[in-house]
Amino acid sequence: MSPAQVPCGVPVVAAWGMGIDSTAMIIEWVAKGMPLSVVLTADTGTEREETYAFLPLFQQWMDERGIEHHVVRYTPRRFKNWPPYFTLLENCLTNATLPSISFGRHSCSQKWKIQPQDQWVSDWKPAQDCWRRGGKVLKLIGYDASPADSRRYAHREGHISERFDYRYPLREWGWDRARCASRIREEGLPVPIKSACWLCAAQKVDELRSLPRWCLRLIVLVEARAGPRLRSVEGLWRSSTASRPGSMTAYIRDQRLLDPDEVDEIIAGAPVDLVEFQKAAASVPVEDRQPMCDWIERFNAGIAHVTA
Q1: CB-CB neighbours of 67 under 10 Å
Q2: For 116-142, how does the pLDDT look when each residue is reduced to its tens digit (9 = 90+)?
Q3: Are 205 and 194 contacting, i.e. CB atoms less than 8 angstroms apart?
Q4: How many other CB atoms are found less than 10 A from the CB of residue 11?
Q5: CA 15 to CA 17: how far, in whole Å?
Q6: Is 187 left (phi over 0), alpha (psi -120 to 50) or beta?
Q7: DSSP 292
Q8: Which InterPro entries match (predicted)?
Q9: 24-77: per-residue pLDDT in tens?
Q10: Of residues 182 and 2, which shows the higher confidence score?
């Protein structure tokens, strides 16, 4: 099916990851006069500051063209004895674990990105009407034609869904990352950075080095909280390579991105304090529990402590 062959009346949903590829895909798709029903963005709560800064700029671009768009989020329903949590970071701290990509899996993307988008679509009347007629919603995915995205595409190629047809316009056009960046500049927009969680194992050394101090502190906390349960991986980067250790904390310490004494203080005190916070939450009804974000806010301020 060529880009010109979008069946009349089929709802078209674009997955916008707030990065270079999906931004260029939407710009060019609209420029070609192709139908676009809605743009969905899944927010994990752990995107980089630069990504969140770009979000309103492109939202304005879509508003000016009358394009419907929504930010969607995974919403936990059951908290058992835990403080309520609502981001990938909070989920990791609650369960004393790392993002699934650090274990060689990709369920964090499924849970925090794909699932909330699909849930939004399942509640959307145009999609419901389409499915009732026996049709499928068309979903646009921003994989480009570069070798790296070709490997990602290989995992999706041939994927069959009862509810969705998937299209990869950038691959149809033969666009790589550089062409995408050029198209965004042609539109008069700043080129966003690569969209990725700052906890992601796919993060390169230079990307880690560019993170603000508060992110580095939380990375140390996440690895320290998960540390006692880790058996097969060293840390967020999984295993060591010639250029870096498997633990981001080890790199942060070795490169003095944080003072080593500060790293030691976080490792020694913060996980214990967090466990006490969780125990306090377990003793009260869920509607009265302080959310995990309250503890993180105090940690970021350097004054984390337990409250009743």
Answers
A1: 17
A2: 999 999 999 999 999 999 999 999 999
A3: no
A4: 22
A5: 6
A6: alpha
A7: H
A8: Rossmann-like_a/b/a_fold
A9: 999 999 999 999 999 999 999 999 999 999 999 999 999 999 999 999 999 888
A10: 182
Mind listing the pLDDT tens digit for each residue in 170-183? 999 999 999 999 99
Amino acid at 223: E
Task: At 171, list the tokens.
Answer: 């691959």
pLDDT tens digits, one per residue of 263-282: 999 999 999 999 999 999 98
**pLDDT score, position 305:** 44
Contacting residues for 265 by C-beta, under 8 A, at least 6 apart: none
- CA–CA dist 65, 14 (Å, integer): 15
Residues 6+ apart with CB under 8 A from 57: 189, 190
Contact 254, 54 (CB under 8 A): no
Per-residue pLDDT, averaged over 185-205, amounts to 94
Sheet holding 164-167, edge to edge: 69-72, 38-42, 12-15, 137-140, 164-167
Q: By CB neighbour count within 10 A (0-12 exposed, 13-18 middle, 19+ buried), where does 249 fall?
A: buried
Q: In the numeric block, which tokens belong to residue 215?
A: 């992110």
Q: In terms of CATH architecture, what is 12-186?
A: 3-Layer(aba) Sandwich (3.40)
Angle, helix 213-226 to helix 88-95, in steps of 10 degrees: 30
Q: Are 147 and 176 in contact (CB under 8 A)?
A: no
